[in-house]
Amino acid sequence: MHAVSPPAPSGCTDTGNMAAPLARMSVWPVTGRTLSTAAALCRRAAPLGPLPNDEFRDKDLDSLKKYRCFRKYYRYADKESTKTNWWRTYRQFLYPVADDGLQKVDIGFPYVSSSMKKRVKAQREVLKANHKNPELEKASRQRTLLIPLDEVRSEWESSCGPAHIQRVAEHYGVYKDLFGEATFVPRVTLRVQYSTGEDAVMPVYYGNVVTPAEAASAPEVSFQAEEGSLWTLLLTNPDGHLRATDSEYVHWLVGNIPGNQVYSGDEVCHYFPAFPAKGTGYHRYIFILFKQEGHIDFKGELLPNPCHSLKLRTFKTLDFYRKYEDKMTPAGLAFFQCAWDDSVSHVFHNVLNMKEPIFEHQFPPVYHPPQVKFPHRQPLRYLDRYRDSDEPTYGIY
């Protein structure tokens, strides 16, 4: 048997294979999925250049180049990653760069890393010494080996720690909100601790959560410094300004710090407790340590003590750095996150002498489709979504 197609409607002529399916669809009802013939009219354009991994296409894996060590492979991979391609990667598609990959300005201290050979040689010597140590072998076999965490942390801080801190700060948008298109590697380790009791302290790392009650008083700050050096310590909040979104509140500013004796410096702005407003989520409180080239006169930045005016505490780190960029260099960084608690109400009412602002998210009204007289496959409480909110509901359920 041969299937006979229905006749074409009047006024329509079958001019080719493309028009016939369209004519059939106009006569016979179509159910389910259909395949449109418009796709056949599109022609795929040639790519602008070679596709990724195009040189390895249709090749045997055994014929490809082999690397005897990972070092050569990493070197080749880094070289290939720096080449400019006509296509965009997945990360470039998600986070497009407006200035075509413009690199940020490094305003920190220059750093010359040791050669790869010296570092690998030092690691091998340490491994050989550990393998020849019978006490380590015995402790490892008996599972009594204790790792000195203080030594591990000091080794991390002196090797790859600053680069890791920079990446975390980039993730939290610290450099973008404080310095714009500039960045720096925190070469000096900044240790900040809030005292929460007689023997308890709350340390500040790189994004950990500290409550406003714990940050009510000035913390203990320590760092390694040479004798005769001068430093500046800044604590700012880029998320808490109540009127201008691009401004900050300065919480603490101490200049001309001799060595690492913070409380012996010139207190330009006394410490003010954290006060994140209710409903605004987590705020970033950022400590920045600057190394001075010499003594700096901060008379233009000096605030009265005590200073409980938010207008006087309005601050911008970028303007402050541009004013003294020839005399100071950012060297250390630490920050924590803080959200509202009951102690913030005390700060607004008793310290700032103002009403406490409370922010709430305004949700859009719930959309309901037009009401159907005989709803099919709807829950029994279908009419509740159309009921007036002021209508009493007692006695219904």
From TrEMBL:
The keyword Manganese does not apply. It is found in: Mitochondrion. It holds the Pfam family PBP. It comes from the Eukaryota. InterPro entries: PEBP, PEBP-like_sf, PEBP_euk. Keywords: Coiled coil, Mitochondrion, Ribonucleoprotein, Ribosomal protein, Transit peptide. Gene3D superfamilies: PEBP-like (3.90.280.10). The keyword Ribosomal protein applies. Belongs to the phosphatidylethanolamine-binding protein family. Mitochondrion-specific ribosomal protein mL38 subfamily. This is Large ribosomal subunit protein mL38.
